[in-house]
Write a structure and sequence with these properties.
By secondary structure, the protein is mainly α. It has a single domain, classed as Tetracycline Repressor, domain 2, CATH 1.10.357. It has helices at 3-17, 24-31, 35-41, 45-65, 73-90, 96-103, 108-129, 135-152, 154-174. It comes from Vibrio barjaei. InterPro entries: DNA-bd_HTH_TetR-type_CS (IPR023772), Homeodomain-like_sf (IPR009057), HTH_TetR (IPR001647).
Length: 175
C-alpha cells in the first residue's frame, strides 16, 4: 500500500474518530497496514495527523482550483458552494485542521502544516476572486463557515455568501 493510500485511510479515521480517541494500534488497523509499514511512512501519531491533513488539504485545494473560471464574484460564490458541498460530504463536524490544532496545540509540525495550508487557501481565494485586497476577508468568511457548519449547516454558507456579495458590492462602489 502506498503512502498516499495510508494517508487517505488516516484522514478517514481522524475524520470519523477525532484525534484523541484512536490509538496508534487502532490507526494501524484502520489504515490496513502493518505497524512496521505505518511507522515507515509516519513515525509518530503526530506525523500521522500531518500526513492525513496533507492528503485532505490536497483534495480540498484541487476542488478549489476547479472554481477558477473568470475571476470575480460568480467564481467566488462558486468557491463557497464548493465549500458547502465539501462540508456536507467531508466535514460535517467542522474543519479537521482546526480540530487537529485543538488536539495538538503545542505541536509545531501540525501547526506548520495547517498554517501552510491555510495560507494556500488565502492565495486560492485571491485568484478565484481576482481581488487580492479581499483575500483575507474572504478567508475569514471561508473559515467562519467551517467553524459554524456543525451548528448552522447550510445557513452558515448562505450567510457567508450574502456577506461576500455585500463585500464585493461595497468595495466595487468605493473604487
Amino acid at each position: 500500500m502506498s503512502q498516499q493510500q495510508i494517508a487517505e485511510n488516516l484522514e478517514r479515521a481522524f475524520a470519523q474518530k477525532g484525534f484523541a480517541e484512536p490509538s496508534v494500534a487502532e490507526l494501524k488497523a484502520l489504515s490496513g497496514v502493518s505497524m512496521r509499514t505505518l511507522y515507515k511512512y509516519f513515525p509518530s501519531k503526530e506525523s500521522m495527523v500531518v500526513g492525513a491533513l496533507d492528503y485532505r488539504h490536497q483534495r480540498y485545494l484541487s476542488l478549489l482550483e476547479s472554481c477558477h473560471s473568470a475571476p470575480g464574484l460568480a467564481a467566488t460564490l462558486s468557491a463557497f458552494d464548493t465549500l458547502s458541498h465539501w462540508m456536507r460530504q467531508n466535514a460535517p463536524k467542522g474543519c479537521l485542521s482546526a480540530n487537529a490544532l485543538a488536539a495538538f496545540p503545542d505541536n509545531a509540525e501540525i501547526h506548520s502544516a495547517v498554517e501552510t495550508y491555510k495560507h494556500t487557501v488565502i492565495q486560492q481565494l485571491a485568484q478565484i476572486s481576482g481581488r487580492e485586497d479581499l483575500s483575507q476577508a474572504l478567508y475569514v468568511l471561508h473559515e467562519g463557515i467551517t467553524a459554524a457548519y456543525p451548528i448552522l449547516g447550510e445557513a452558515a454558507v448562505s450567510a457567508a455568501k450574502t456577506a461576500v456579495s455585500a463585500l464585493f458590492t461595497a468595495t466595487t462602489s468605493n473604487n
